[in-house]
């Protein structure tokens, strides 16, 4: 047996959802740079689910479907109220999404059209869950979704209870576009493994949220902000980063399993971080990030990934740190569900092998004689 630790380089499926070839990321054949500049998040969602960009009528239909499905069952609101206020927001999201299945009469149907409807419900309801939990834990009432609002606007509105400004909506919308899909990343793989047993879409997305939470994956955006806060100010950057590198500790937001010459999404987030810093008059996090990048790339050749500058972008949008990874999930649910649909359409159980390296020829002895 040849063991490939971490499945590096293993091609486990074919997919037409997104690709990373020679460092270029495409969704359904559209370059991420093009989409980031010229498409809204909802256009990208339509693209991921349907393989084509929507015309005006199709986009309006999707916007209406998302708006019509944005409310969450009262039982799920009550469940969120029952969680400890200090609960991890990804754990709360994972549990609430799992509970949503119980209130969806179609949750266990396996035909593609039903699952396309479930995908709409999941995309519509995830922002509502994240915003509701964020308010409940502060002792505030959840804010009902705003009819007709797009995902980015609606999320900021439900989070703050105020009309968000156009700059914030535009920035969050672009961040959602950039995070929507990424080939066979760990959370998407988890989703596909789960549904390949012919389990349901809610189970697949629940598995994916669990996988995204870890700091080697989507949880890195929160970890980046924790690091920036820990460093505190520009004059501490060099010593802090050098110490970590000397101890061979990882710097969050750097490196990538697939990109070795840089993540094409990072430059967009870096630009957004700079522009938002200028607008808010607080360039501190951006400037510290640039200095960290100079040191880490200079010494290790490691480049920032999507999570590095998203931390300072979300901070400039005044989003609490522990909502960064849930926001990643709000976007990535479009990719997860596109992959789940693709898995159902051409399914085979995903079941690799392990090389056994444990003890052999063991015998069960009497319990009194065991050490
Ligand atoms: C949305 C996303 O999921 S993007 C990734 C988000 N994750 C992070 O930002 C966490 C920090 N980065 C990492 O841990 C890694 O780069 C990963 C998990 C992204 C990729 O991991 P892998 O492909 O398994 O690379 P691996 O962890 O084996 O690293 C290879 C070498 O680079 C080093 N390295 C990789 N990333 C980093 C880092 N961020 N800081 C310092 N050293 C690093 C490793 O220590 C290792 O060095 P060694 O060969 O001397 O032991
Ligand atoms: O592809 C990966 O391994 C991680 C990543 O960047 C993503 O999921 O966006």
TrEMBL record:
Pathway: Carbohydrate metabolism; tricarboxylic acid cycle; isocitrate from oxaloacetate: step 1/2. GO terms for cellular component: cytosol. CDD domains: BSuCS-II_like. The keyword Ligase does not apply. InterPro entries: 2-MeCitrate/Citrate_synth_II, Citrate_synth-like_lrg_a-sub, Citrate_synth-like_sm_a-sub, Citrate_synthase, Citrate_synthase_AS, Citrate_synthase_bac-typ, Citrate_synthase_sf. PROSITE patterns: CITRATE_SYNTHASE. It catalyses: oxaloacetate + acetyl-CoA + H2O = citrate + CoA + H(+). Gene3D superfamilies: Citrate Synthase, domain 1, Cytochrome P450-Terp, domain 2. Keywords: Acyltransferase, Transferase, Tricarboxylic acid cycle. The active site is at residues 256, 307. One of its GO terms (biological process) is tricarboxylic acid cycle. Pfam families: Citrate_synt. GO terms for molecular function: citrate synthase activity. Belongs to the citrate synthase family. PANTHER family: CITRATE SYNTHASE, CITRATE SYNTHASE, PEROXISOMAL. This is Citrate synthase. It comes from Paenibacillus antri.
């Amino acid at each position: 047996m040849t063991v490939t630790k971490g499945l590096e380089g293993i091609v486990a499926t074919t997919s037409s959802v997104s690709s990373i070839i020679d460092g270029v990321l495409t969704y359904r054949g559209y370059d991420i740079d093009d989409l980031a500049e010229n498409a809204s998040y909802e256009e990208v969602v339509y693209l991921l689910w349907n393989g084509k960009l929507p015309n005006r009528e199709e986009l309006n239909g999707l916007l209406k479907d998302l708006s019509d499905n944005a409310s969450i069952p009262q039982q799920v609101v009550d469940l969120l109220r029952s969680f400890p206020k200090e609960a991890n927001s990804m754990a709360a999201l994972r549990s609430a999404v799992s509970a949503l299945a119980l209130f969806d009469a179609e949750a266990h149907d396996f035909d593609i059209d039903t699952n396309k409807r479930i995908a709409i419900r999941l995309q519509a309801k995830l922002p509502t869950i994240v915003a509701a939990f964020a308010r409940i834990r502060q002792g505030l009432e959840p804010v009902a979704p705003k009819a007709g609002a797009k995902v980015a606007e609606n999320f900021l509105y439900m989070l703050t209870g105020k009309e968000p400004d156009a700059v914030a909506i535009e920035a969050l919308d672009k961040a959602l576009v950039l995070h929507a899909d990424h080939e066979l990343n760990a959370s998407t793989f988890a989703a596909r493994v789960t549904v390949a047993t012919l389990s349901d879409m809610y189970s697949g997305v629940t598995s994916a949220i669990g996988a995204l939470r870890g700091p080697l994956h989507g949880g890195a955006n929160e970890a980046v902000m924790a690091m920036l806060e820990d460093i505190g100010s520009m004059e501490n950057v060099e010593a802090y980063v050098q110490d970590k590198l000397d101890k061979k500790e990882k710097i969050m937001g750097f490196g990538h399993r697939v990109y070795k010459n840089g993540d094409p999404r990072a430059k967009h987030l870096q630009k957004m971080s700079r522009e938002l810093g200028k607008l808010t008059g607080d360039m501190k996090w951006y400037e510290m990030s640039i200095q960290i990048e100079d040191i880490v790339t200079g010494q290790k050749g490691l480049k920032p990934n999507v999570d590095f500058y998203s931390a300072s972008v979300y901070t400039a949008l005044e989003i609490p740190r522990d909502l960064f990874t849930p926001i990643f999930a709000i976007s990535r649910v479009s990719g997860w569900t596109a992959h789940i649909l693709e898995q159902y359409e051409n399914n085979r159980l995903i079941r690799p092998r392990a090389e056994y390296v444990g003890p052999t020829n063991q015998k069960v002895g009497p319990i009194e004689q065991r050490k």
